[in-house]
Amino acid sequence: MSEPIRNWAGNVDFRAARVHRPSTLDELRGIVAAAGRVRVLGTGHSFNRVADTDGDLVRIDALPAEVEIAADRRSATVAAGLRLAEIAEQLHAAGLALPNLPSLPHISLAGAVATATHGSGDGNQNLAAYVRGIRMVTADGEVAELTRGESEGFDGAVVALGALGAVTHLTIDVEPTFEVAQHVYHDVPLAELTAHQAEVFASGYSVSGFTDWGSGKVSVWRKLRAGADGGFEQPQPEWLGGTLATEPTHPVPGMPTENCTAQLAVPGPWHERLPHFRPEFTPSSGKELQSEFFVPRERAAEAFEAVRELGTAVARVLQISEIRTIAADELWLSPCYRRDAVALHFTWIADLAAVAPVLSSVEHALLPLGARPHWGKVFLSGPAAALPTYERAQDFNALIDRYDPAGKFRNPFVAGLFPRA
Ligand SMILES: Cc1cc2nc3c(=O)[nH]c(=O)nc-3n(C[C@H](O)[C@H](O)[C@H](O)COP(=O)(O)OP(=O)(O)OC[C@H]3O[C@@H](n4cnc5c(N)ncnc54)[C@H](O)[C@@H]3O)c2cc1C
Question: How far is the CA of 41 from the centre of ligand 1 (A)?
């Protein structure tokens, strides 16, 4: 092994016996075909062992950095190892956009899609829902192509936790580029947000609420999309008991605001406003663990109340919490499979021993509400407990068998949830 491989947060050391960085498709095919156990690593921003293997770990970011726009300009086929920021820049230069982005543009498209990474917005689905085509190297080293609406099992193969093959290209829906302006209201009472959550999350194209659960206050980030005339609704000085921010802000109190995308209602291109963090700076706090739970939208108020009741304990090990909404999709392993969701995210301190008992209480409070954990973040009993809510879980297991009969890509994370029959 030429370099020590650790995830972005530093809480996971990968156990790989060998690490590869192929620069051609044929090289990748050879590595996968020859491997006994194999996984692809994206940019390593997941907080758990979803990407881990004790066999061959492959990075695909040295494959050709292709971004090919379809003639009808409604989709683009891109090298899946590219970071979202790299893809966004090229799309924007061509007058195009992705419908939405998560909080950070630093991550690879393939990694984001494999774990159902999402941004926010009542009408916005997670990134995986924008995938219309998948090209991947399967366990035997062959190349498989899957197309939305045509290939059997496509809806199971998008959010696949890296278990079906090495994804080399993804074809994604794109649309004409658009402008976004974001502003922040501080000190919105949590009780107001809870009582008016439908109004709050409908008040922008993408809306996030940041809270510590203990103070009873929320900072609401509203990202507005330009209207048909290119203009924006101007924010009022006060809204729902909160006050319009007059200085830039960072979601994590005390962190440098230059790490964040421009606020104060200054318009800019979609990819420079929809993520909270700028690609050339450290996202979030940089020293942290993260967890997130997707609750059915209609149970949002119960979920807020349940976490608020844990407020003091949560606040002791929390840097910040974020509340977002995501629209339902059809992807078998998506936490938003056939349900609109509200996601309760927790940026914890970087100390699992201190966080674990609190996380356990959070899971205890949210799982009975039907919560599904984020595949790429920290959980305790999470996915196993939530698996019965995934109606297509067994179909996904059958899909693994179809593409990977010998179980090369079934690492312990996957095998624990989807054991071989
Ligand atoms: C600071 C920070 C902020 C975050 N913000 C958000 C957010 O706003 N919204 C959100 O939903 N999540 C967020 N996340 C979580 C993050 O989006 C996910 O963990 C995502 O999976 C990271 O992508 P990655 O490329 O680092 O994937 P990795 O962690 O490297 O891998 C994740 C999974 O994808 C698989 N994979 C990667 N590439 C391939 C490939 N080419 N073929 C097959 N499988 C592959 C891996 O095997 C693994 O199973 C955040 C994480 C951090 C660190």
Answer: 9
Domain limits, CATH 3.30.70.2520, in the chain: 179-385
CA nearest ligand 1 atom 27, residue: 111
Share of residues in the chain with pLDDT > 70 (%): 99
Q: What is the pLDDT of residues 116-141, one digit of tens each?
A: 999 999 999 999 999 999 999 999 99
Give the whole-angstrom CA distance, residue 374 versus residue 126.
12
Q: Is the CB of 46 under 6 A from ligand 1?
A: yes
Mean pLDDT, rounded, for 60-89? 98
> What is the Å distance from ligand 1's center to 377 Cα?
9
CATH class, 179-385 region = alpha beta
Buried b (16+ CB within 10 A) or exposed e, 371-391: bbbbbbbbbbebbebbeebbe
Residue 197 near residue 301, CB atoms below 8 Å = yes
Confidence of residue 88 (pLDDT cuts 50, 70, 90): very high
Query: Considering the entire predicted model, what is its pTM?
Result: 0.97
Q: Is the CB of 417 under 6 A from ligand 1?
A: no
Residue intervals in the chain for CATH 3.30.465.10: 67-176
**Fold adopted by 67-176:** 3.30.465
Which numbered atom of ligand 1 lies nearest the CA of 109?
Answer: 25
Reply yes or no on whether the pLDDT at 202 is more than 90: yes
